[in-house]
Amino acid sequence: MSATAGETVTGDAPPATTLRPSFDGVTPPAPHAPAVDPAVRLSHVTKRYGSGPLVLDDVSLDIAPGEFVCLLGASGCGKSTLLNLIAGLEPLTSGGIETPSSGAAVMFQESALMPWLTARKNVELALRLRGVPRGERRAEAQRLLETVNLGEAGDKRPHELSGGMRQRVALARALAQDRPVLLMDEPFAALDAITRDLLHEELERVWRATGRTIVFVTHNVREAARLGQRVILLTSRPGRIAGEWKVAATTGRRIESPEVAALATEITTELRKEIRRNAQ
Predict the structure, then answer these.
(1) How many domains does the chain have?
(2) Which residues constitute the domain of residue 135?
(3) pTM over 0.90
(4) pLDDT per residue over 23-62, tens digit each?
C-alpha cells in the first residue's frame, strides 16, 4: 500500500529490504495476489480546530489488514490527533476515513484502569460492554490475561501492579473489545527502557497471535524501527506525510539489532530535516 500527502519525501531503508531469490541472474516476478481492501483508509484528511492553523493537511494512507504501522514525528505534529480521528473521537474538517464497521479499540499512554477493580474485573468490564454473557466473562478475561502473560495477576488491583503490568492489563482490555483494528497512542512512553523493551516483545507476540491491524503512535524513532512493518513520518504542523519506510523482515528484531539501528539512523536524518525546516 502507498502513502502520499502533500510534498512527499520517501525513504527506503537498505538494511530492511530483502529481494526475492534469483535464478540464472534473473529475479522471478512476484506471484499475483488478489487485491485486498485496506483495514483503514485515510483520504485527503484535513483537521483544523476552529479558526486556528491546520493540524493535519491532506493526509492519505491505506493500512492493510493485519499490518503493523508506526506513526512517527516531532511533538505536536498531529500524530495523536490522527489516531483520534481514526478512532472517531474527533470530527474531520475535511476528507474521509474508512474503518471496519465494528470500529477500533484504543490504548492510551495511561492504562486508565478502574482502581477499585481487579485486573480480571477490568477486563471483564470490557467484555460486559461488548455483550459477552455473564457466565462466560471470567474464563474469557482469564484467557486474555494469559495472552499478555498475566495469568497469575488476575486478582490483583492496579496499585499492586507495576507500570508495565498495568499496561499489559490495558492491552488485554483492548483485546477484549474484539475489534480488528487496535490504535495505540504512545502506550509505553512512561515506562523505563527495560520494561519498554519487554513490552515490545509482548506486543509483537500478541500481534502475530491475533492478526490485529495495529496503528502505533510514537515519538521514539528506535521504537518505531523496532516494531513497525511500515513507518510513516509526519512533518511538523501542519502534519503531512514526509516519508515512508517498509520493513520486509520483522521477525527476530530487537531494539539493539543492527538493522533497527540503521533504519533508525535513516529515519532520524529525515526527522531532523523536518524539525529544522519548521524552525526556520
Answers:
(1) 2
(2) 113-178
(3) no
(4) 334 444 555 555 678 999 999 999 999 998 999 999 999 9
